[in-house]
Design goal:
Peroxisomal Thiolase, Chain A, domain 1; 9-stranded mixed β-sheet; binds octanoyl-coenzyme A
């Protein structure tokens, strides 16, 4: 068996950002408009008045202070409250492919690789912008890569599931090097009229080069010591958007065709699941949490990450042990833990161990144990 390393990473960050203040102002304007428009039904008890959102709640409940977005104007317009992304012609690069190409080029550069060194492209993310042709094949074409490409979706855990898929290809010699790319346009599937979750998501794209250790030319790389995946069915995070929606037109535009969650239940279910999985995985490798220098955890909720890290370490984690990017990026689904890895991995020195862990819809959890080489 060959050894596999992550030898390069890249990050595409949209130019526009929305602060909690801006988001709440727009949401509260929508609430005011709604309550005014429906004042008769509300007075008659037929409709419930909507409640306003608050900056303080968002920051305390989630740790999120702002999010990058592909379209700020549409999102902040209380009459739209959704990104407005013009359709492109079939001969133009699609938006997801465009984000992916930027992140992939950075990853290739940091790995000291060119398109000729890559044998496969995996687009792994929560939402794909069309059915076919696969976005990955479009990216493969844009980068001039030979070999093959495919798309995969495991919601928030798409990146770690993609890493293991690439790792297996490299270990078995099926590919010399693989690009795993996570273009997440989460704002297009978020219900910005839902007070409980309107603040949760942002947009970004990450990319990684995963390759055979013996061919690695990067100054610093991260050997994939082992990876483990688990899924466990739950309806607590759900989105019923899909290609069959048009077969039942009555359901089109209903809130269940966007992201819906029972946030409290997710928190309660997922924390023990993640702690148990990481603990067992480390034990299998004769390691314990104290051997791990950095925990690159899925970035969904600050309190959740604090609790997971403290349960693993038996004490509160310092920022440098479990870095957070949530405050700036919000939840970017599968890209979140990779953004933390991309930004803070250089703090690790030779032989330092770290983990990259994702968790979310499915439920799905993926844990990758890495060693800086
Ligand atoms: N402003 C003010 N008050 C509010 C607001 C608001 N915006 N929203 C709710 N409240 C109020 C509630 O009404 C409630 O009031 P009361 O106590 O009087 O009933 C109070 O605040 C507390 O509400 P909650 O119990 O809902 O608040 P929590 O403390 O549980 O926080 C969170 C809510 C932040 C949602 C929290 O539960 C959480 O983050 N849980 C974890 C969720 C999680 O990790 N989800 C994973 C996400 S899935 C993923 O990462 C990828 C999915 C696939 C991507 C899809 C792309 C779109």
């Amino acid at each position: 068996m060959e050894l596999a390393v992550i030898s390069g990473t890249g990050l595409f960050t949209p130019q526009e950002s929305i602060s909690n203040d801006e988001l709440v102002t727009s949401f509260n304007q929508y609430v005011e408009n709604f309550n005014h428009h429906h004042r008769a039904e509300i007075a008659a008890g037929v409709l419930e008045a909507l409640l306003p959102s608050s900056v303080e709640f968002i920051e305390k409940a989630s740790g999120i202070k702002s999010r990058y977005v592909v379209d700020k104007k549409g999102l902040l317009n209380p009459n739209i409250m959704a990104p407005r992304i013009p359709e492109r012609g079939n001969d133009e690069l699609s938006l997801q492919a465009e984000m992916a190409v930027v992140a992939a080029k950075q990853a290739l550069q940091s790995a000291h690789k060119t398109s000729d060194d890559i044998d496969a492209v995996i687009i792994a993310c929560s939402n794909l912008q069309r059915a076919y042709p696969a976005v990955s094949v479009e990216v493969q074409n844009a980068l001039g890569i030979k070999g093959f490409a495919f798309d995969m979706n495991v919601a928030c855990s798409s990146a770690t599931f993609g890493i293991q898929t690439a790792e297996n290809m490299v270990r078995t010699g099926k590919a010399r090097a693989v690009l795993v790319i996570n273009p997440e346009i989460c704002t297009a599937h978020l219900n910005f009229r839902n007070r409980d979750s309107h603040f949760i998501f942002g947009d970004a794209c990450t990319a990684m080069v995963i390759e055979n250790k013996s061919a690695c030319q990067a100054k610093h790389a991260f050997e994939i010591i082992d990876s483990t995946l688990v899924t466990n069915f739950s309806n607590n995070i759900r989105n019923n958007f899909g290609f069959l929606n048009c077969t039942h037109p009555e359901g089109i535009g209903k809130p269940d065709k966007l992201f819906v969650q029972e946030g409290r239940k997710v928190f309660k279910d997922v924390v023990p699941m993640v702690v148990e999985m990481i603990t067992e995985h480390l034990a299998k490798l004769n390691l314990s949490a104290s051997d791990i220098k950095m925990f690159f955890l899925h970035q969904a909720n600050l309190n959740m990450n604090r609790l997971i890290a403290s349960k693993l370490l038996g004490r509160e984690a310092e920022f440098h042990e479990a870095p957070v990017i949530l405050d700036e990026y919000a939840n970017t689904s599968s890209a979140g833990s990779v953004i933390a890895f991309h930004k803070y991995k250089d703090k690790l020195t030779k032989d330092d161990m770290s983990i990259l862990c994702s968790f979310g819809a499915g439920y799905s959890v993926g844990n990758v144990v890495l060693k800086r080489v």
